[in-house]
Amino acid sequence: MTDTIKLFVGCAPNGEDAESQMVLEYTARKHSSLPIEITWMKHSNDPMSFWYGWESRTWATPFSGFRWGIPAACGYQGQAIYMDSDMIILADLAELWNNPWDDHSIIQMKGDWRTCVAKWNCERAGKVLPPIDQIKSVPNAHQQLFSGLQANPHLQQSFDRQWNNFDGENDPLD
After folding, report:
1. Helix ranges, the chain (H)
2. CA 11 – CA 32 distance, rounded (Å)
3. For residue 102, what are the contacts with CB-CB under 8 A and spacing of at least 6?
4. Sign (positive/negative) of CA torsion 148, 93, 121, 20?
5. Average pLDDT, stretch 39-68?
6. CA dihedral in degrees (146, 149, 153, 158; nearest 10)?
């Protein structure tokens, strides 16, 4: 594995998420024992940008479907972590980065199919996902790909739910 964590963060294109982006970056760097390379995934007006020209009108957020482009953005090599911009990292990100892969999964996520935090096996995903041009051009590709993932649970591997803990989820305060 590489010594640099590839962290892809979904965020709004016009600075609406600036505060949460700063918190995520600060907490990621504060708690990580490995260097981090952050890619802010947001719509772009630059035709040379990977994030240009995505059909997003059916997405729940301005970045929902971008997570499916991460393997292609990585050249279908290695692995990458995805997070929504409103995440706060309270543990060493290297723990998630170094979480081992099983023999079949393309994605690691919380067991309840919530993908606000996910880790991609980019090489394996490249053998399963449709071509990136198809993902970018189909407005409901995000929903279709997510449904396809749920229909093929062997492609998903669960990680410690604390990596995507939604407001404490009724955990004891201590």
Report:
1. 18-31, 70-73, 93-97, 122-126, 132-137, 141-151
2. 21
3. 157
4. positive
5. 94
6. -60
C-alpha to C-alpha distance for 130 and 163, rounded to whole angstroms:
28
Distances in Å between the alpha carbon of 56 and those of 53, 111, 135?
A: 9, 26, 10
DSSP classification of residue 23? H
Instruction: State the average pLDDT for the chain.
Output: 90
Rounded average pLDDT over 34-51: 96
Measured CA to CA, the distance from residue 102 to residue 156 in angstroms comes to 9
What CATH number belongs to 5-164?
3.90.550.10
* Phi-psi category of residue 53: left, alpha or beta, with phi > 0 → left and psi -120 to 50 → alpha: left
Specify the pTM. Answer: 0.92
Read off the pLDDT of residues 96-122 as tens digits, 9 standing for 90 and up: 999 999 999 999 988 767 788 899 999
pLDDT tier at 159, thresholds 50, 70, 90: confident
Polymer length in residues for the chain: 174
Burial of residue 151 (CB within 10 Å: 0-12, 13-18, 19+) is exposed
Contact 132, 69 (CB under 8 A): yes
